[in-house]
Amino acid sequence: MLRITGLKKSYKGVRVLTNLNMNIDKGDVYGLIGTNGCGKTTTMNIVCNTIAKDSGKIAFENENVIIGFLPETPALYGYMNGFEYLNFIGACCKYGGDIKARTSEVLRLTGMHGYAGRKIKGYSRGMKQRIGIAAAIYSSPDLLILDEPTSALDPQGRAEVMEIIQRLAAAGATIILCTHILSDVERVANKVGILKNGVMAVEGTIKEVRDRFAGANAVHVRLKYTPRPDDPLRSMEYVQSSEIWHGGITLYAKPEITEAQLFYKTISTLAENKIVPEGIEFVRMSLEQIYLGINRGTLHYTIMPNHYTQQ
């Protein structure tokens, strides 16, 4: 559906996208995640051709791909009601079918039919997001892009928007969900990309992303104290990296080290230093841990294609 290769973009000399590669297949619900300011919105604006790229290649499945785009803060006409606004959208996009019928269809799909007679200026933020999704899907787009669709919503509003996305996904839509909310991605996406410093740090199905880091076993050691930077556990020969937290430490093993070796060495080091732990727990990297590790710098990566290292 969409292939992005070597995408670069700067604003007034500040590089936002350094060398971005990204792959979307037909039927994917792709969760594009990253911190605020990492380049998610810039990428989607370039894909939609609302801003120009500096360099790189954007290739679609075919030259007639229709894109539906919901920006983070959609600009709606508050003096219109829902029916009027969507009929207006139908006219703007030169919808070839029955506009009134299509308007009713997208209103029902987004759960807004019962509110469509009200002025948009009186809508809640969640209702505005839903009417924005209705506008984005009006022309039955080949690719639907949703930029932070739940970022400013209360829990009920978030749940309503995510249910709409799930219905669209079940119907076979190809969707890019740009967000920094990991629970939203895990709820609806089949593929994820983690964007950092203008490059794609990690990309693949959620299982593939987890599996890439699963080879580096990790252990949580709960202690009665918060370790110092020179704690003996951090200098163990089997440990590639570590993360100190209040009341404990997480030790990441070198790739060639087995769980049994890491456990034995951890117990031996604790005994040698007369440290009595409150608990030891082996862990596998969750999506949240991978995301946080990449952004904190405890997990390091090389630029795409898929080669990642832990440090």
Span from first to last CA? 34 Å
Order of helices and strands: EEEHEEHHHEHEHEEHEEEHEHEE
- Number of separate helices: 9
Regions with little confidence, pLDDT below 50 for 5+ residues:
302-311
- The helix content, as a percent range, equals 25-40%
Share of β-strand residues: 25-35%
Largest sheet: 6 strands, mixed
Structural category? alpha/beta
Order of strands in the sheet with most strands: 5-6-7-3-8-9
For the residues shown, what is the average pLDDT?
A: 87
Overall 3D shape: elongated
Total number of beta strands: 15
Give Rg in angstroms.
23 Å
Plain-language structure description:
The chain has 311 residues and is an alpha/beta fold. Helices cover 32% and strands 29% of the residues. It has helices at 40-47, 82-92, 99-109, 125-136, 155-170, 182-188, 206-214, 259-272, 287-296; strands at 2-11, 14-24, 29-33, 55-60, 67-70, 143-147, 174-179, 191-196, 199-205, 218-222, 239-245, 248-253, 279-283, 299-301, 308-310. Mean pLDDT is 87; it is low at 302-311.
